[in-house]
Design goal:
rod-shaped, mainly alpha, single chain
Length: 145
């Protein structure tokens, strides 16, 4: 699964950053993983220190405790992703079901084009016919106004 691989990679990076920050704290360097990366690039951390810190991080990442935490975090993230996907699909289905009657009514309504180019629905046409009939009766005097 492609998404599982992406989730595993993201979680691994987050766990590795946490482990690195723990090793840094034990080494007397109070900085974040990002700050450490910048310090290494800037040459503020000696090569020997960086090698020792990296070795300690790799050793801890290989421990059963960290592996178990990593797997639990991956499973949690995948469950959350599946939950969001399911919720999205559920909400989409609910929306489709809610608008289905209106959509069906709209699609079944017959539209006609009158002489002036206006679109009118059948009930409007019937109303116009009723108005014309009443108007003609009034003109003939057969209906009291």
């Amino acid at each position: 699964m492609k998404q599982e691989k992406a989730v595993r990679e993201a979680v691994s990076q987050a766990v590795k950053a946490q482990v690195l920050e723990g090793v840094l704290a034990q080494s007397g360097l109070s900085m974040t993983a990002q700050d450490y990366g910048k310090a290494v690039e800037a040459g503020q951390v000696t090569r020997e220190q960086a090698q020792k810190i990296n070795a300690a991080v790799e050793q801890m990442m290989g421990s059963d405790d960290v592996k178990a935490k990593l797997e639990a975090a991956v499973a949690e993230q995948i469950d959350a992703l599946v939950g969001r996907i399911w919720l999205t699909e559920f909400v989409q289905k609910q929306l489709e079901e809610a608008i289905a009657p209106a959509k069906a009514g709209y699609e079944s309504t017959e539209f006609s084009q009158d002489a002036a180019g206006f679109k009118s629905m059948p009930f409007v046409t019937r109303s116009r016919t009723a108005i014309r009939t009443a108007s003609a009766r009034r003109q003939r005097g057969s209906c009291a106004a």
